[in-house]
Every structure is written in C-alpha cells, then in structure tokens.
Amino acid sequence: MSTEQPTWFTREHYLNASFGWRSWLLTTDHKRVALLYLMTITVFFFLGGAFATMIRLELLTPAGDLFQAETYNKLFSMHGIIMVFFFLIPSIPAVLGNFLVPMMIGARDLAFPKLNLLSWYLFVAGGVFVLWSIVAGGVDTGWTFYTPYSSMFSNTNVVLAILGIFIAGFSSILTGLNFIVTIHKMRAPGMTWFRLPLFIWAHYATAVIMVLGTPVIAITLALVALERVWGVGIFDPALGGDPLLFQHLFWFYSHPAVYIMILPGMGVVSELVTTHARKRIFGYSFVAFSSIAIAVISFLVWGHHMFVSGQSQFANLMFSLLSFLVAIPSAVKVFNWTATLYRGSISFSAPMLYAMGFIGLFTMGGLTGLFLAAIAVDIHVHDTYFVVAHFHYIMVGGTIMAYLGGIHNWWPKLTGRMYPETWARVAAVIVFAGFNLTFFPQFILGYLGMPRRYHAYAEEFQVLNVMSTAGASILALGYLLPFVYLIWSLKYGPEAGTNPWEAKGLEWQTLSPPPTENFEEMPEVSEAAYNYGSPSPSI
Amino acid sequence: MRIYVLVWVLLLLLLGITVSAAYIPLGKLNPVLAVGIAATKAALIAAYFMHLRSTARLIWIVATAGVVWLAIMFTLTAGDYFMRGYLPKPTVWQQR
Amino acid sequence: MEARAHQFEDAEQQQDAATLGMWVFLTTEVLFFGALLLGYSVYRRAFPSTFGEASRHLDIVLGTVNTAVLLCSSLTMAFGVYQAQQGNNRALVRYLLLTMFLGSLFLGIKFYEYYEKYSEGLLPGSAFVWHGSDTAHASIFFLFYFILTGMHALHMIVGVCLLLVLAIRGRLGRFSASYYTPLEMGGLYWHFVDIVWVFLFPLLYLVDRSS
C-alpha cells in the first residue's frame, strides 16, 4: 500500500479516539454502542445455543432419559426466551442498525445518542434478571407464558424472567423510537426517501413495529406477574378470568415480533445482493413498500397462533385469510432479490453465500407458514415439530444467516480488517448444510405427528431425531468458526480499505473504521441508491 | 392565551355533561356517549393544548397511528369475543 | 442558552427531532394503556351488571373533582408553555408550580380514594370483601381499577417530578423565547397523562350509574 495511506494505528477513528472503561461504558457514539450490543448478544446467543444443545442431546433417544420432564420444560423455555428476546429481536437492529443507520443516511449519529446508550443498559439489566432466573432454576412455561399455567400453577421463577423481558422491552422501544426520528429528521441533503438504501426502509418498518407492539407485551406480562404476586385472577378461569385474553394480548405483540426479527434481515439481504452482484436492486419501490406493508399487515394476523385455542370460528376465518395476505409482500421481496441476481456480476463471497442461503431457506420457511395459515392443515400440525421447523427456517435459516452475512459484509467497515475469505466461505457452507440437516427432518417429524415440547417420543421418530441432532452439531461448528476467525482477524486480518467491495452506499464512502463523527465532510447525495453500472429495469 | 381558556371552559362543560348523562338511563347508548365525549375532550386537548393544530402533518400521522392501532387491536379481538357461537362447527366435529 | 447537540445541523432540526420523538413515545403509551383497556373491555362486556354494581362503589364526587383538577392543570401547563414562548421566566415558573400543585392535589385525592377502597375491603386479593353476588368478577373490576389508575398515578408522579426539574431549570434561567423545547415536551407529556385520565374516568366511574 502507498505510504500516504493512513494506517489503522496511526489514523484516528472511533475505536482509538479514546480508551478505557468509561469511554466505552459512557459512550454516546452509536458505533460503540453497536459493538457493546454485539458483545452482549453474542454471549446470549451461545447461552441459548447451549440450551439447544441440551435439548438435542435429550432427543437423541426416544425415552426421556437425559433430563427429567420438568427440567426439559425449562430447557426449551429458556432456549426460547433467550433466543427470541435477547438474541433475535435485538440482533440486526441493535448491532448493524445502530452502526449503519446514521452512516447510510449521512448523519453524524442517531437522533438521541444518550437514549441509545440507555437502551443498551436496559438490555443488559433485563438480561441480568433473566440470567438470575436461570441460576435460580429457570422457568418452565415456554417462552409463550400461557396462562393459567404461568400465572397460577408453575412453581418456577416466572416473575424474574418476566421482569427481565419487561425491562428489555423498553430497550427495544427506545431503539425503535431512535430509528424513526433519525430516519425522518437526519437524512443528508439530497437523501430523499426513495434514495435511501433498502436497509433503512427495512429498519424503519421494524422500528414502527417495535414502537407499536412492545408496550402491549410489556403490560401483558406485567399482568401475569401481578397475578402471581398478588394472587388475583386476571387470567384464571377459576377466579373469573379468561386465558384466551392472555393469548390475544400476547400474540398481538409476538406475531409482529417475528417480523421485527425478519425485516432487518431482509434489509441486509437487499444490501448483500446488490453489493455482491454489483447490480441495482430490481423493483426498488416494490421492495421499499413491501417492508411497510409487512409492518402493517403483521399486526392483523396474530390469531393464527390460536386456531385451536377456542376462539370463534369467525376469528379463525378472518385471521387465516389475513395470514395469507401477509405472505404477499414477503414473496415480492424474494422475487425482486432473485431478479436482481439474474445477470448480475455475482461474486460468491461469504456475504453472498449467506444471502443466497437466506433467499432459499426463508422461502421454505415462508411457504410452510402458508401451510400453517390454512386452518385445515394447522389443526393437524399445530404444536408439532412442523411448527418448530417452520419458525426455525425463518429465524435461523433466515435471520441468523442474514445476520452473519451482514456481519461479514460490514466487518471491514466496523473493524478496518478483512476476515479470512476462504474460512468464511467454508463456514457459510457448513452452516447451510448443518441447518438443513437439523431442521428439514423436523418438518417430516411434525407431519408424522411428533409433538413439540416433549422430552420423550415414539420409537418410530428416532431416526429423524438423530439426523436432527447430528445436523445441530454441524451447525454448532458452523457458528463457532466465525466466532474464532472474526476475533482472529482483529489482530491478524489484513487492513481493509475504505471500500473493499467497491459498493455504493454512503457508509462505504468514509474510512474503515470510520472517524467518530462518521464523515470528514458531511455528504450530499445526488444519485439513486445502488447506482451500479449494469443496467437493470428500475421501477 | 384566550383560546386556552375557551377550550378549558368547553372541557369542564363536557365533564358536566358526561357526569349528568351517566345518570340518565340510555341503555347501550350510555357507554357510547361517555367514550364519545371523552374522545372529544381528548381531541380538544390534543389540538389546542398540545398544539397539534399548528404542528406538521407527520406528527398528526404519529398521533393517529396509536389510535388506529388500538382500533385494530379492539376490532380483531372483537371478531373473537363478539362472534363466539355464530358460525356452526363442522358436522364432522360435532360427532365427537 | 442550550448548545445545539452535535448530531444536529441546526436548532430547528433538534426541536423537530425532539417533538417527533416525544409524540412517538406518547404513541407507545397509547398502546400500553390501550392493552389494559382491551382487557377491561372484554370483562366489562362479559359481566356488565357486576361491573356496573362495582363501579357504583367508586366515589363519583372525588372522581369528578379529580377530573376537573387535571383539566385545570392542563390549562396552567398550557399557560406555562405560552409564557415560555414569550420569554417570561418568572411567570413560567409560577405556572409550572401551579401545575405541580394541581397534579399533587390529584394524587392526594387519588390516594385517599385508594385508602377508602382499602378500608371497604375492596382491594383485590385475599382480603377482598364483596357483599353482592359474583365476587370473582367484581374482584376483576377492582383489579383493573387499581391497575389502570395505579399506572396512571405512576405516570403522574413522573410528570410532577419532570415539572419540578423544569421549574428548577426555569428558575436558573435556562429557557428563553428562542429555546423552550424541554418545556414544550413536558407539556406534551402532561397533557397526554390528562387525556388518559379523561378516558379512565368515564370507563371506570360511570358504568351503569343510572341504575
């Protein structure tokens, strides 16, 4: 490299601008907050993974011989609570979103940097309560906390876990609030709504869901906690309560929550596909509007979790129809990404491999969601491994692959270092193979009738369960590899330049790692997003 | 300044109406009237005290979004509670 | 004068961001209270006569007085923000203190009501005493009464503390005709908490009073 190029150590950037605990724990720099989140959610990811490991080990044999039934109930509950509330929901928004949203719109920081830091502290505080509940013996209600079991009969640490989730919920609300205000008010001159990267549209839609949905689950879980502490009967039939009310309130948030988990992933994929195929996105406005459509329609479908719970037939029909509708904007995105790849200059880098994996696996997960939206099918596969496979295809085959793809894509920007490409490709393939071996058999298991949340099962299901556990061990390896080589790259990885992918996007126009104020000179935007050379019909 | 006092007088008037109307038996209309008057008061407070009238359209959208989302929550939940027992179960199920 | 925070280009952007941020926050509060109201509505529809009977145990005089108190406090708050716009710091602080007083009066009356209910044995839980039929559902009414008004009271307490902070800053001369955004935001929050009570009052106190 030429000697005029400032090196990682001599140039000032956000990582070396200040040192010491206080400069990190009291930072208001969105990039540092993003890294704080990165470290925290990685811890939770491996903790949730540890619970998954124990589940899969138990399910190697049909008999419930590794753990007692009560313990097993705690394993899948903690796995769900940690993965949903402390990994998936924050993952892309709190790490990549926090880092990139201001940069992609040409701002110096988010609108409310101190609220951003507060959101991390709330997240950690919530996490501490959940960890405390684990140490104290866990909860066995499932991450869904259905009443009256959770409010009346469970003898586990429900209130502690709820407290953790309640506090972490405020973290989510603050993040969403920050994103909405930032995207509305802090775009650089010339950065009109329709020049925004689709990553921003996706995070805007996600932020809307966070802000509108999270308060509902906060108060709902608070009511459950009150019922336990106070001994009153909000959801207890014996004391006049209605358990179905809990389910309505719970799923009113928790269904849109799954879109909080997938929308940012879709935003990442839009970026990965355009960057690594060097092509303009096909149908920009369709993809942009589909994000908003998903955010809105996601609030209209929650009853599809309650088809067999006893709600009215009318509600069943209504929610089933609306659930079919919600698939449409997602399908629109898949078509558009595919069309973007077509005749693109595709480079099979690790981010592209993750993006392609996402497109295929998310499609499978999404289509099986339609199976479940059909009441006649759902009657049979509800509470079986079919549902488990469906949501893992989306959450793991979708969100986690997008998350890893995004981490790799922006690693050079975050750290100024390149990761080892060959290892990354190998890891991506291992993840893909391990994932499919883990979860595809579960579709079959569910269809054949194996119930979920059981630690023992009928003999005839063993072969498929063994395949699933084998796949899980491969998947685990696939996840450990990036953990190792990404950390390795911090010291030994080659210095990345400003724009190793030669990508469009404001974040790539500034140095890697960026200076604290993001840009030496605040940018002005005059061209459309993804203004790559190759012509592509733009809508 | 003056408009605030006017709105305040209107609000107290509406309070008086709400309370008195509660003692008149109007059947199903009672709660409708009560919530309707409350919504009117809320609109007055939002428009004048919270300066919504002179704020950007974007804020109007944000202000109404909460109400709209609440309406979604209430309406679709009503689709369950209000419609229980209306559609017959399939005869196949009734055989159980 | 308050310095412009570094992430903003100019004071107008900062003010715009603050206003949008506060309204987004208020929207989250709408959903927060709204979820509780959904629960309340489900049970009220299911057990209308019990809820009516229970509602009649609430003190309508105190409830009406409290509503009037809050409406007055909204007026004084609006006056306060108006004075800030004019740059009249002393008047501003006076109105803030008046608003705080009215808010505290509301809380005092509320806690007195709670005490009344407690001594009548209407606190849900093992000590609940009900002389009518359908104890279970009457208990649920009072549950929602205490949770809804309790959540509201919590927000009022936060509001009073907020006003105290604003009054202190006003006294220290931190606001002017060109910078009074925190006051405007405080006003928005205060009025919103008032709006919540405007709904809670008829929904809780005025159920079936004509019987």
What's the helix and strand layout?
The complex is a heterotrimer of chains A (about 550), B (about 100) and C (about 210).
Chain A: H1 21-25, H2 30-58, H3 69-88, H4 91-105, H5 113-135, H6 149-153, H7 158-185, H8 198-230, H9 243-277, H10 284-297, H11 313-341, H12 350-373, H13 375-381, H14 385-415, H15 421-448, H16 462-492
Chain B: H1 2-22, H2 29-49, H3 57-81, H4 91-94
Chain C: H1 11-46, H2 48-55, H3 60-86, H4 89-119, H5 135-171, H6 181-205
**From the coordinates shown, what is the CATH architecture of chain C?**
Up-down Bundle
User: Which superfamily, in CATH terms, is the homologous superfamily of chain C?
Assistant: Cytochrome c oxidase, subunit III, four-helix bundle
Supply the CATH architecture of chain A.
Up-down Bundle
The percent range for helix content of chain A is: 55-70%
How far from one another are the termini of chain A? 41 Å
Q: Which protein chains make the most extensive interface, counting residues with beta carbons within 8 Å of the other chain's beta carbons?
A: B-C, 43 and 48 residues
Gyration radius from CA atoms of chain C, angstroms: 20 Å
